[in-house]
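A common beginner's mistake is to predict each chain separately and then try to dock the pieces by hand. The better habit, illustrated here, is to supply every component at once so that their relative placement is modeled jointly.
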Amino acid sequence: MAIAEQDGNASGYAAPETNYINNGYGLKSWLLTKDHKRIAVLYMISISIFFAVGGLFAGLIRLELLTPQGDFSHSDTYNKLFTMHGVVMIFFFLVPSIPATLGNFLVPIMIGAKDLAFPRINLLSWYVYIIGGTLGVIGILAGGVDTGWTFYTPYSSTYSNSNVLIVAFAGFLAGFSSILTGLNFIVTIHTMRAPGMTWFRLPLFIWAHYATSIIMLLGTPVIAITLVLMMLERAFGFGFFDPRLGGDPVLFQHLFWFYSHPAVYIMILPSMGVMSEMIACISRKRVFGYEFVAFSSVAIAILGFLVWGHHMFLSSQSTYAGMVFSVITFLVAVPSAIKTFNWTATMYKGSIVYNTPMYYVMGYLGLFLVGGLTGLFLSNMGLDIHLHDTYFIVAHFHYIMVGGQVMGYLGGMHFWWPKISGKMYPEALGKASAVLVFLGFNLTFFPQFVLGYMGMPRRYHSYPDEFQILNVASTGGASVLALGYLLPGIYLIWSIFKGANAPQNPWGAKGLEWEVADTPPTTFNFESTPVVTEEAYQYGPIEEH
Amino acid sequence: MAADHVDHHEHHPHGLAHQFEDMAQQKESVLLGMWSFLITEVLFFSGYFLTYLVYRTQYPVAFAEGSHELDITMGAFNTVVLILSSLTMAMAVHKSHEGSKNGTLGYLIATFILGGVFLCVKYVEYSAKFEHGLVPGLAWHPHGEHSPQLALFFSLYFGMTGMHALHMIIGAGLLIWLLVKTAKGTYTAEYNAPIEVFGLYWHFVDIVWIFLFPLLYLLGRH
Amino acid sequence: MAEHHNSPTVGTYLAVFSALMVLTALTVWAAFQDLGPYGDLVAMVIACTKATVVIVFFMHVKYSSRLLWLFVGAGFLFMLILFAFTMADYASRGWLGAPSSYYLSIQ
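With all components supplied together, the output reads:
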């Protein structure tokens, strides 16, 4: 197998004595670092903690839904459970997941820069994220919040008796942190590319992050102002969405989804970038239709801003506006399909390497396909009346956001782990985790499509008896899924202490981060600025065999 | 992928951060960064402007009543003050490009004072609204048949001008920091990006007011 | 983006300032005239003109690269998208004859 040979070939690799990890010791050298790689590691640790917290809430939700009666939690407690699950997972895990970790680590290296354009702002974004996260945790400990992660008015602004203000402010800060990350990426990609690194030589990971950053810059401020308006209304009794003053709660939904729909593309585009890198490497081929894949990222980002009304088909939005939103929503399928087709075309007749990243790629393609196609059901206005606010929706967005982004996050984490940590992980366990995640995920969420189609509404802690069998299947699947997520956490940490030293380029992959940067990279990434002389992904099929 | 390498620059100009190759790249990045931030600010304020647009089209009468409650003299005076401060800010940037430390310092101080004048006038206006019971939620007395919609107008008035004033206060804080650095002689004809970038922010705050003034004080006046 | 931008002169700044003052006076004057439905339009056209002047001259966009024009344009374009699609909803509510529940509640 090609990988084994690569390991053998590269065993003579002499890693530099000083790299970004051992260049300075002690907590202070990490907490005050301006090195994008160390900040990525800080993000990685904090994001993993929030993923565990959000996962805990998910576990409690599934435990409650094991039986039709509301026997484990009170309905108020259940409202808080799903709200906190959503808030933690979306604001503190999914949005920063790939951009702030893999993106932070790889964007400067992939384009041949010493660091991001604004290292101090990068560090600031982590601190803002941590302050927001701390406030969120305080809000949870003080009794939680029960509005749903969407904070819909007038419930959030007037009626809810939970900690809306502090948790909404935590979300505001998380948004601010993601604006800073996006700003840094946009400027870095524009101005810091190495000589010869033209736009069409950029790895597709960079294109995906550029598109993500567009959304972060243009969308996030709108959720910020929306939360500010809601908080002003709640705190001071100002009226912006108050029907008693003639205000319109649906206006809140317009403002909210202007960000939050594009934001679901923040939660998928980066993983598409990860996939493009991994698919090219495991197929030993240039990505088929590079330009189309690159532009489809930008197209998804821009189209994403034109479809938010499909969240409001049943919110007394005008039917005509709904029709326009529905049609444009269907259009999003086009760039998404371009990506999927081009990935499979890349793999076609490639010399495919069966390693852990490849398992994650295959899992991703399957889950994203199901998630994307069920999105077409929901963009259909007529059908959406039936499926709105049912478990069909829940299953759909989990297929995209968890099946997509988390598969991309874990797959990318395996793919670049040797570069990040300088260690190899146990290959067999890696494959096992990918299979567990794929099986557990489908067992958890596929029954929810059926449940939703049968009419089980989301956000209730009890349900009719006939839905129990599918809910038990879903809860069982969630246990498998949890195991699948736990496993990489254990063996990746194990590998830091006990794993074999990684060679410079264990997969024989193309790209500056593999071919030029050391393993682990040095503090300024490159000894001298690299000059790029060829396109991305110039895999020669012969040399590996 | 990489065939050969470019040598690192040996000399290290004053004010050049380690991640940049040269001053031109640094300046380009810093300007682009500030403009990216200002774009987020445009979209941040657009949430207010959209809310205003939606309700004004629905309740034009109540909103016209609202404009009549505002003091047009103070609003116009503040507009002049703020545009003047934009001029002094532009001049400060101009002087910093020339490398004139005292000129920069003088115009920055003028900008700071004008910003202070603006905020003082705003304070006087706010106090009057509290006295007249025109602050929704905090000090509100019913005002005629359009009272609920008038409350929407004043919620927007305080929300928009308050957020604008908050930006002014943050700007004034940054100005103090710039004044100290300028006085210390940190900025030269070659390295003055912080002043230029702050100027962009200040002008942006001015632009927000250019829209707030007609929307809140003028529409429906005649 | 790489080319050095040549700053405008002090004369330009003073001319821009004077123009802004004249426009401010004009918009206050116009506010007291009965322009019927065009009053709002006039005020907004003047405000947009003033903002454009500030962006182009005080903020040096005139002397900057095409990339900066693109950035500035994108910001305003997406603001317009937000306005246009939301207002399209409000404008077309009730077209079906039966007013939506929201309109019933305010009438």
